[in-house]
């Protein structure tokens, strides 16, 4: 399939596919006239990349998943390197959630103090 069809079927753009190719995440074969050509395996790689990117993974974080698929595994997360990326990403998310919870508590405290200052004094 050509790049336009891969983009359409993969839910992305031709520009993104060229970028993935520049990063080495996908590899196009070239026809005699120089056009990029892809197959179903490439579609599977693009689907894996998009799926991970959609949940917040950086493109470089998708590399172990892509390599795992290229190595013939049925799932991109069947390899230890992919599991390590999951663990790292989960730790990052947990840290972010903790920071947000702390910020929320501080804002709540500030709001409560502001509301108490606005109450009229009883005489």
UniProtKB/TrEMBL annotation:
- Which terms in the Gene Ontology molecular function aspect does this entry carry? DNA binding; DNA-binding transcription factor activity
Q: Does the keyword DNA damage apply?
A: no
This protein's UniProt keywords? DNA-binding, Transcription, Transcription regulation
- Domain HTH merR-type as annotated: residue spans: 1-68
Entry annotated with the keyword Transcription regulation: yes
Q: What is this protein called?
A: HTH merR-type domain-containing protein
